[in-house]
Amino acid sequence: MRAMLNGIWRIMFICVIFSCTKSDMETDLNEQKAADVQKPDIAYNVKAAVMLDMVNDVRTKGCTCGNTAMPAVAALTWNDLLAKAAFDHSDDMKVNNYFSHTSGENTTAGDRIRLAGYEWRAYGENIALGQTTEQIVMNSWLNSEGHCKNLMNKNFKEMGAGRSGNYWTQVFGAK
Q1: CB contact at 8 A, 172 and 156
Q2: How confident is the model at residue 14 (pLDDT cuts 50, 70, 90)?
């Protein structure tokens, strides 16, 4: 009888261990999936994780944009709808050989962001042409007062970016 009870306890112990381990593993996987959504490695021809880290490094430390001291602001999260709108604009500029915040069809960044499915209450857009890496394009934007102020705007909560050739677009938004 005692041997049978010990056997039952062992089986119950093993079941508890495996159920806890499975639950912990599922939690870890869910947390990893959430992190991947927040910070993809590469999205729309941009090293998204690198760019998001660079933006958030500047935002959380504060910087000077032109002659304006900008205080530290909250970090942003990656948004794939914003990245899609950014990529589409970069690609349109490349294909149609222009460089402007307004497209050939006279659409603005707000129009493009909404068409991508992002219902914004605030948005901003940075564009660049000719830069070959995320670091170089970030330096260009930080050295431009208007672009830098977009990067530091406390109203923005999310961002996305896209590149086609050496046409870059970075889009910020808040819902």
Answers
A1: yes
A2: very low
